[in-house]
Amino acid sequence: MKLAFIGVGVMGAPMAGHLARAGHDLTVYNRSRAKAERWSAEHEGRAAASVVEAVGDREAIILCVGNDDDVRGVVTQAAPALKRGAIIVDHTTTSAHLAKEMNALGAERGFAFLDAPVSGGEAGAQNGTLSVMAGGDAAPFEVIAPVLAAYAKSVRLMGPSGAGQLTKMVNQICIAGVVQGLAEAVAFAKRAGLDPGLVYEAVSKGAAQSWQMDNRWRTMAEGRFEFGFAVDWMRKDLGLVLEEARANGARAETTALIDQFYAEVQAMGGRRWDTSSLAARLMRR
Fold first, then answer.
1. Looking at residue 213, what DSSP letter applies?
2. What is Dmax (Cα atoms) for the chain?
3. DSSP state letters, 243-262
4. What is the DSSP letter of 49?
């Protein structure tokens, strides 16, 4: 397909790379032009100077930007230049309200909008093993799903507009709870005088096993957090969760508490640390 990829940062650059290697005709745009030019120097694809230039003749536009305002800004810039029937796929984690707003704009202007946040982090983007959870109409989803498979091991339509973002909120609730449990477990093991490596070998083959345990236990125990999904990003996502919970009446007491623990990590200077840095606040005591 003729594709535009908007936002070739930590996640977007490898995702766009997978699309280029799959043979798609790609134009990329990034607010920081140097990133787009660096990407185009390494892959088959062209760097555009503006959103309008990037989307002009494209069949689908894929976004991986920062927040609600960024998505709204890109889509409103792009809308007048889009081909009728174009598909916008938004991989940004945003509010469900924003997804519905952009879907309504698409219905008015003649393009389809799919909210399609991802899970799997930077490693998943690089390895092409992301999980995509989409919301929107089935017809455009069926067209674009095989394209997204270039960087995803799972691409699922969760329901109407907004359902993808709501599913991502469920994902973040689960991650926050698991990471806090691991942080407490690692800190407990160390204070009890146990060898964290031996503890991992003992407990990771049973009911306590998780992706977070397999990939973050060792670095937690070693106090290494300068990598991965940033605390600032997680707090943005948990803010969306808590806002939605207030609106729909869901009880999210543990999530709200963990969000405040992440605020403590930010105050410690850990705004860009990995989410596993919840362990840092326990090990300093």
1. H
2. 65
3. HHHHHHT---HHHHHHHHHH
4. S
Cβ atoms of residues 200 and 209 within 8 Å? no
Report the distance separating Cα 95 and Cα 196, nearest Å. Answer: 38
| Tens-place pLDDT, residues 71-91 | 999 999 999 999 999 999 999
Q: Where are the domains of the chain?
A: 2-159, 166-283
Cα 167 from Cα 165, distance rounded (Å): 5
How far apart CA 208 and CA 270 sit, in angstroms, is 27
Average pLDDT of the segment spanning 166-194: 98
DSSP 156: E
Task: Answer yes or no: is pLDDT of 205 > 90.
Answer: yes
Angle made by CA atoms 90, 271, 167, in degrees to the nearest 5: 35
- Please tell me the distance from the alpha carbon of residue 92 to that of residue 99, in angstroms, as a whole number: 10
Distance from C-alpha of 103 to C-alpha of 55, rounded to nearest angstrom? 18
The answer to whether the predicted template modeling score (pTM) of the entire model surpasses 0.90 is yes
Q: Which amino acids are annotated catalytic?
A: 168
Average pLDDT value for residue range 34-56: 97
Nearest to 189 by CA among 164, 220, 168, 167: 220
Domain 2-159 falls under CATH 3.40.50.720: yes
107, pLDDT greater than 90: yes
How would you classify the pairing of strands 46-47 and 60-63? unpaired
CATH class of the domain at 166-283 = mainly alpha
- Residue 51: alpha-carbon gap to chain centroid: 21
